[in-house]
Amino acid sequence: MKQQNKTIKTLKDFFGGSFETDDGQNILFKEPEEEPSILEAGLFLQRWKYHNDMGKLKVLDMCSKISSNPNPTNIPWIDEYNAEIIFNNCKIPFMVGAWERYLKSTFVVLLKCSCNREKVFKKLLSKIKILPDYLESISRDREAVEWLLADWLSFQRPKSIIENYQIIDSELDINAVFAKKSDAQQESLFEKIDHIIDIRNNIAHAATIDTSMTNENFREYEKAFEEAADSIYKYLGRYYKIELSEDY
After folding, report:
1. DSSP assignment of 73-104
2. Do 175 and 189 fall within a single domain?
3. Are residues 25 and 54 in the same domain?
4. Which residues, in sequence order, are bridge partners of residue 21?
5. RiboL-PSP-HEPN domain location, by residue (predicted)?
6. What's the average model confidence in pLDDT over 146-161?
7. What's the mean pLDDT in 64-85?
8. Nearest-CA neighbor of 47 among 231, 219, 242?
9. How many domains does the chain have?
10. Per-residue model confidence as pLDDT tens digits over 128-150
11. What is the pLDDT, as a whole number, of residue 116?
């Protein structure tokens, strides 16, 4: 907010004229009395980035006009050439990639802010193998050590995510988030996300088309990821006793 106000003031001083914000004409944005902590700002920034990533899928949907029969025939070799199904399959790797980046970057934020960094580093180093080029990157200050360590961990499947976060704090248990049922569905978020990871792997490694991936089914998976991301974000706010903004 301070930077926004600084930019607005600089532009007004240079060009003259007037400006308008949510607070009124020629009134700068109201700055918060206290700056957010590094942890609070970091968690918000990663959630904001994830929100923007998922927004790209919505933009893609708005700009794409797919003309085909939306109803599967249940004949695999026909449905594999259904444009809507192919289109939704192509979006899955990006959706999973955005999910993975969000969980990894949030892990890095927690690791950087951890009070037990030395203990956590020891745990991580016992699980992974550091290659010489990684050490070189650290020595040249090209990469933060937290990112290099996180790169060795998997942040796709719920089971791995739960285990990784508990390396930072054994009391940090996000299992309850994944155990939630996705709305009226009988499937938990854990099961739903695990299933979409399987679909993603089949697409990425075997070019397999999931013929059930209609627009309706894709939106269900999209909603499951967003629900899980929201729940994790809110859980971390409660756990660390910070009020996280949802204005992303």
Report:
1. -S-HHHHTT-HHHHHHHHHHHHHHHHHHHHHH
2. yes
3. no
4. 24
5. 86-236
6. 91
7. 77
8. 231
9. 2
10. 777 677 667 666 665 678 888 89
11. 86
DSSP letters of 31-73? PPSSPPPHHHHHHHHHHHHHHHHHHHHHHHHHH----S--S--
| pLDDT bucket at 33, cuts 50 / 70 / 90 | low
Does one domain contain both 1 and 45? no
32 falls in which pLDDT band (50, 70, 90)?
low
Q: Is residue 57 part of a domain?
A: yes
Q: Are residues 107 and 26 in the same domain?
A: no
* 41 plus 54 within the same structural domain: yes
Question: Is the model's pLDDT at 218 over the cut of 70?
Answer: yes
Indicate if 100 and 124 belong to the same structural domain.
yes
Tokens of 220: 């269900």
pTM, two decimals, is 0.81
CA dihedral 234, 240, 245, 248 (to 10 degrees): -60
- Give dist(CA 32, CA 44) in Å, integer: 15
**5: CB partners within 8 A, 6+ apart:** 28, 29, 31
Q: Are 108 and 230 part of one and the same domain?
A: yes
Residue 232 domain-assigned?
yes
Range of the domain at 54: 37-240
